[in-house]
Fold:
Amino acid sequence: MTGIYLTGGILIAGLLFANRNKIINNVLIILFGVLQCTFTIYQCSNFRGTDLGYFTSDALGLLFLITLTVVSLPALFHSYLYIKRSPESSRQSRSIYFAALVLLITSISAAYLANHIAVVWIFTELTTLSASALIYHHRNKLALEGTWKYVFICAISITFVFIGILFLSLSLQGTGSNDLSYANLMAKSDQLNPFWLRLAFLFIFTGFTAKLGLVPMYTAGVDAKDKAPAPAGAILSSALMNMGFIGIFRFYTLISHTPLHHWANIVIFVSALLSIFVATVYMTKVINIKRMFAYSSIEHMGLVMLGVASGGIGYYAAILHLVLHALVKSSLFFQFNQLYNVFQSKSVAYVGNYFKYNPTGAIVLLIAFISATAMPPSGLFVSEFMIFRALFEGQFIFVLLMVLLLLTIIIWAFAKNIFKILFTPVIGFDDSNVPRISPWESLTQYMLLFTAVWLGLNPPQIFVDLIRESVLLLQN
Amino acid sequence: MINVLLIVFIITLLYVSIANRIITYVRVLSLQGFILFGVTFMQLQEINTVNLVLILLETIVFKAIAVPVFLDYLIKRNNITREAEPYIPNFLSLVITTVIIVVTILLANSVKDDHLDKIFFIVALSTLFTGLYFIATRKKIITHVMGYLIIENGVFVLSLAVGNEMPMLVNLGVMLDIFASVLILGIFLNKIGDIFNNVDVDQLSNLKDY
Structure:
């Protein structure tokens, strides 16, 4: 089935790219949606099974795959709306956009399930290719600049990951085996040469931070989410970040069985703390709404990695946080398009009193804000609280205090902008041309946000079991 | 013989660090392609012939001929001026490159591993860091791209060190080369030349918060 899915996905992307007819285009998108759902359901039934030798449906991969499918269906729908309304979209740009989106979703799904580090790497390359086509959608100077930065930084990052894989193979040489699948690496974890393993971890970690959105390579992702159309930005800031996480996490699981575990934790701590710090600094100044969402993602990824590094319940909390963050952040990005339709601007300065023009959407924005800042009724409160608990239990009191301080500043900055958008009228805004936004467009966001609350407060047993199983291999 | 070729490879790095004209960079990249051809030919004795021929073709056709020719074409088409325009004087560049090489040699000597050819490790790492250094200190976008191509050559050398045991990794390296070069050179350098009149990195600082 994985073979059928990959061929199908690439074939549909190719057809979308070649086709200029509107109806065929829509049929193909629906076809891909069906394919994605079928594949997900198949992988659920094929739990722990291996396809084509390289794709294993393990707990973590399956969890993220389901999240991706849940996010990608509304993403396809909102992309359809976006392209339909966009005045500058030509037939060519439409076909490139959808082809790239389909290729992106396909390659992220494959990267989730890959059980071999080189296969993950190949699909990471493919995501760079398809994401760059999405970022260049508007074909103007700024989009080109964003694309160039993204492509260049991602190219260096995947080179880094490749160097990491080479070092990993060097560390494997003493063991008499040359199979780089995670299962084999895990079996040989006590014989790996620590010097090469250390270098491998540094390079692989640095490389994947471009996708995950951590210091040092976070910059490209922010520009990308700003310039890509919002429905694509939703995928970039949820599923693609999860893919970066999976790249680091599977390798970290291996490291946790070696004497390097403590050292790796320190590396992750430094990177995560710096990320939260950078996010705080930018959040206080940012006025571009999409960039604000992107920096908020960086903050959340920093929290997730803090959870991973502090261990204990932090592992569980990190995975939970990633799933919930994907749902919440994508709904924020979906809502952004409706906001943009009303105000025709993405600067906070020219946006205000959203409740007057689109109350349904404004409530989405309010709930999503409460979720994204992890205030009590939201699901992210639960996971963030568990991360703090893990930090406390791990005796990282100083780190905890610093994070709490930075988070307070972030919440203040986020709230300042969101309340401006929701309530403060813009002086001189001419509202005679504001289109009526159908409340039904916000339905997908309500569903996503509701799911996030439900999964956080009252998680079904199967969901808890999946998360437990995905962190089972980690050494405490 | 492999050692001689690899040492020549290191010397090309020193040469690039003091090069004034962009065309010198292009020529050095081409020369590096030929050197890699020789190293691959002698190093990868144990892998099967078809695979070896493919890798050799990649080094000679792609690295040594196609990419330099295309870079040349881009330089002419976009009227890129001939100077490389480093931010740092050439003499200092030379010193820094030398320091990078010395440090990697010291690092390699601290490694205790019988499975590794030290010279491959030294060449690969010093190429990697020199490439990053070039990217950080040159002004034009096209020199950034060349810095990246130099890094790729370094990575290719490293993949040759394990090539006999894991030919798959060399193939992946080849894939990385082709993929990244086509993406970076083919699509974007072309576009950037069309849209931005002057191809300095200074032009690429408009994208910020607004």
